[in-house]
Design a protein that fits this description.
The protein has 207 residues and is an alpha+beta fold. 18% of the residues lie in helices and 27% in strands. The chain binds a DNA duplex (13 and 13 nucleotides) through strand 3, strand 4 and helix 4.
Length: 207
DNA sequence: AGCACGATTAACT
DNA sequence: GTTAATCGTGCTC
């Protein structure tokens, strides 16, 4: 069995908005310790760009929690919020500049049984359709903060997937920024695959 | 040492 | 539509 190539570090070094837009259609992969291979096609992502962006964790400066965002591109920034949820981000741009892309949803493609086990009682459509849900389904938590997605030992990384044309992408304001000041609250830095194209992808996976 | 809150979710009305 | 759950984090005292 031959797998698609993994996205190289130079991909993550690009402008964060570009990465957020072009991560759509790529494949999030977790090679579990037990040998299981989990894959999801990325269908929604958001950009968080620098200390000036008042929605970005970097707004408070560098802390122990957000330090990974200041590091080299191509690493995972995983943080804990709301007392119970983990969030997975991909660090972007140059080292020393804090920016990342939040993965908000994927379409399950491989290892669905494992995801169902981690998300007991949920219908398949709700296995990975939220940033905390996909972390739960993929078993992503604190231990992956700082994980090198591009290193030879990576067990969490992004594989090349399908190209998504502009007509199959929507963008809009980021989600959950209730107390964030303008203009940051309304910047259209959230990117989604359209419903119809997502449906098409799901049918291809199912067949 | 104490406190308010969050890049959410699930279960309500 | 609203709200409780639940705790690490960063800020204040």
């Amino acid at each position: 069995m031959k797998y698609a190539p993994r996205l190289p570090r130079k991909f993550y070094r690009q402008d964060t908005l570009h990465v957020a837009r072009h991560i759509l259609g790529q494949r999030l992969v977790h090679l579990e310790a037990g040998g299981e291979r989990l894959v999801g096609i990325i269908s929604e992502a958001e950009a968080y760009v620098g200390s000036e962006d008042l929605a970005c964790h970097a707004r408070v400066g560098r802390t122990q929690r957000n330090a990974t965002m200041w590091g080299e591109a191509g690493h995972a920034y995983v943080y804990f919020t709301y007392g119970m949820h983990w969030m997975l981000n991909l660090v972007t741009e140059r080292a020393g500049y804090p920016a990342a892309v939040l993965l908000r949803a994927v379409i399950p493609a491989e290892g669905v049984e494992r995801m169902r086990k981690r998300r007991v009682g949920r219908p398949d459509a709700q296995l990975t359709d939220g940033p905390a849900k996909l972390c739960q389904a993929f078993g992503v938590d604190r231990q992956f903060d700082g994980h090198d997605l591009c290193g030879p030992a990576a067990v969490l990384f992004i594989e090349r997937g399908v190209m998504i044309t502009d007509q199959s992408v929507t963008s809009g304001p980021r989600v959950g920024l209730n107390t964030v000041a303008e203009p940051w609250k309304s910047m259209p830095w959230r990117f989604c695959i359209t419903r119809s194209f997502a449906k098409q992808l799901q049918e291809e996976i199912g067949s």
